[in-house]
Design goal:
about 0% strand, mainly alpha, Tetracycline Repressor, domain 2
């Protein structure tokens, strides 16, 4: 809800009924604690969403559902994984904790940065698979470099998160994202306004 850098250890200790020294005994330092939070978020949430990029035939609209999920704080079509679907999302959370952490990764310690860097490489690989499959299906322009546009999509997700945090109206976000997707998709208006 607040982002990984905005929750003091004393608040975590209070919420978990553990002493601050107890947290440091378990996690050694704040960087290790944050990296474990990121790993858990990736394992239980982000990986569940990104694994659907492996199966384009079953989930041909996964990219658009994923974008919609970030814009609208959820989409019932984003994952059919029971673990992911059982996650209770904080009501005041804006966007994605992982994307917020990616945007601020250089303010994190080296252990947390490595977790994020590894995930970013994985995400780009998943986007690349999706693009290649969508090109083969005639949905995405065949003359585009899949790796470049996978990195481009990764940047678009960051842009959505920034716009959400800046309280940009959803219709404006959708217009910006539709415009940014023009080089990729053959259709011009991808997201419903």
């Amino acid at each position: 809800m607040h982002g990984i850098n905005n929750v003091p250890v004393s608040k975590i200790a209070s919420l978990s009924s553990v002493s601050r020294p107890g947290i440091y005994v378990e996690f050694n330092n704040e960087d290790t604690l944050k990296s474990e939070v990121l790993k858990k978020y990736i394992d239980e949430g982000a990986e569940q969403v990104h694994e659907n990029y492996n199966n384009y035939k079953k989930y041909p609209n996964h990219l658009l559902n994923h974008i919609d999920s970030l814009i609208n704080d959820g989409n019932e079509n984003i994952s059919d994984n029971p673990t992911y679907n059982s996650i209770v999302r904080p009501k005041k959370a804006i966007g994605c904790l992982l994307l917020r952490s990616i945007l601020l990764k250089f303010t994190l310690g080296p252990i947390s940065q490595k977790v994020i860097n590894d995930f970013e490489l994985y995400r780009i690989k998943q986007f690349k698979k999706y693009i290649i499959n969508a090109q083969n299906d005639g949905v995405i322009n065949k003359n585009l470099d899949p790796y470049f546009y996978a990195k481009y999509l990764h940047s678009i997700f960051g842009l959505i998160q920034i716009m959400r945090l800046n309280k940009t109206p959803i219709t404006e976000i959708k217009n910006v994202i539709n415009t940014s997707l023009i080089p990729l998709f053959k259709e011009k208006n991808i997201l419903n306004s």
